[in-house]
């Protein structure tokens, strides 16, 4: 159950929206057509403005329709009502499409568009955003798991096409469909992990650890702060993490639960070195300048990671969506400021659950 919001847009000749008289003709056409679907429609409020017109119509005091005419030649119609579980929607897709086509013809609109119902306030949130803040609607049909750890809100939702998805603080992290994400992050087929010592920063979903162990490394240590994330993924995402989250220590790997920065400092003090360090932590922030807590954290991770790498070692991490050019450039500036100097390459992959192309970094000493 959720509020349903259906949106219609029509581009009109500005002669039809230029003055109050012309706008009233548009309103008359719109209302006549709406009454075919909503026969008990009544005008609740209207406002004429210098540059347009606004009206609120209602049916049975539970369906609200707003109509806005802009002097510049734009008409918007919003239909909103509450749809309870088990009830049929007030407007089918065929009805929406038919209304759009009829109004387009009667208004002589050269361009029109309707959007299927936006579902707001439901038990399951099916909307998330891309890295560049475009709205994505997922085919989520159930909430599999939800909890709040001391660090974040954790959800696992099921998508009809993507499988189970890990959502942290309302942001998609990984889904059963996302092997390409892990393989691109680790450079499968390019990097040779056999006999190597590896450190993973973050990686609580277990996918990276699971795939790395297939490459026969000497040993992997994973530093993850959130025990609850690992428990949830072990139970509901074992198709991507196998059984690696069942144990915290084996001959092949060790999972350390705690603040990765503190353990990195400990490893540095001990003189411990790795062939590979993976930054599987926060995404590069979307911001106009590299300032704030998140950027400070990224700089700390970079500085400490290179203190842990062997001279021929490599730091591998994910960046952000390839459309976030400004933020990616800010991150690359941070790489150029590192001492000793480093060099980097990038790779990219379309990640199914992100519904966009993602950039990955491979960084070595220059």
UniProtKB/TrEMBL annotation:
GO molecular function: spermine synthase activity
Domain of life: Eukaryota
Signal peptide span: none
Coiled-coil boundaries: none
The UniProt record lists the keyword Transferase: yes
Segments forming domain PABS: 121-366
Family as reported in the entry's similarity comment: Belongs to the spermidine/spermine synthase family.
The protein, known as: Spermine synthase isoform X1
The organism of origin for this protein: Drosophila lebanonensis
Highest classification ranks of the organism: Eukaryota, Metazoa, Ecdysozoa, Arthropoda, Hexapoda
UniProt gene name: LOC115632274
